[in-house]
């Protein structure tokens, strides 16, 4: 009998994939700028180093909370924290 998956993730639009990859890249640059290794930041976040590697690649399977925690720990801008009206001021 074939194995049935509980759910299957639909592919994201290319623009969304690109945005996640850019966010992961920005967080990786912020980490390096702070002088943290991936292991150190992963420990600070309470995640496995493999999760941080996936995050820095912009993987859509990484929980959004992990992206937010990394941004907070690195004091990096996180695009969803800024309201569109705030950018005009």
UniProtKB/TrEMBL annotation:
Residues that span the membrane, as ranges: none
GO molecular function, one term: DNA binding
Domain HTH cro/C1-type: residue ranges: 27-58
Top-level taxon in the UniProt lineage: Bacteria
Protein's recorded name: Helix-turn-helix domain protein
Matching InterPro entries: Cro/C1-type_HTH, Lambda_DNA-bd_dom_sf
Gene3D superfamilies: lambda repressor-like DNA-binding domains (1.10.260.40)
């Amino acid at each position: 009998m074939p194995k049935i998956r509980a759910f299957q993730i639909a592919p994201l639009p290319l623009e969304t994939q690109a945005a996640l990859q850019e966010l992961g890249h920005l967080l990786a640059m912020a980490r390096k700028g702070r002088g943290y290794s991936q292991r150190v930041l992963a420990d600070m976040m309470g995640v496995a180093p493999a999760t941080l590697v996936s995050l820095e690649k912009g993987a859509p399977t990484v929980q959004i909370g992990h992206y937010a925690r990394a941004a907070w720990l690195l004091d990096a801008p996180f695009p969803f924290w800024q309201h569109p009206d705030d950018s005009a001021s």
